[in-house]
Amino acid sequence: MKLGVLITKAEYRGYIIPVIRAALKRGDEVTVFMMDDGCHLANDREFASLAGDVKVNICDLNRGQRGIEPPAEIHSGSQYDNIRMVRGTERLLVF
Q1: Which residue, 36, 65, 68, 77, could crosslink 81 as a Cys pair with Cβ 3.0–4.6 Å?
Q2: Angle (CA) 87 45 84, round 5°
Q3: Can you list the domains of the chain with their CATH numbers?
């Protein structure tokens, strides 16, 4: 299954990471787009460690507004990357 995860709030970290790990364990393809306050997860070590197995994009505008510099594994993008994720997934989770 192709799973998309849209992260708008970092406060759901305790749900997001286990869901992504479970999906990877099942063999699902996972794509993540982070925007708004969800950008703060880019600096979370445990979350960033998933970026090697998951395609992760962060909204460049929202990232810049918050002064966040993501690790190299997390790609800066735009809302275009968000809609590509939405259109290319079979299921979408929004946090």
Answers
A1: 77
A2: 10
A3: 2-94 (3.40.1260.10)
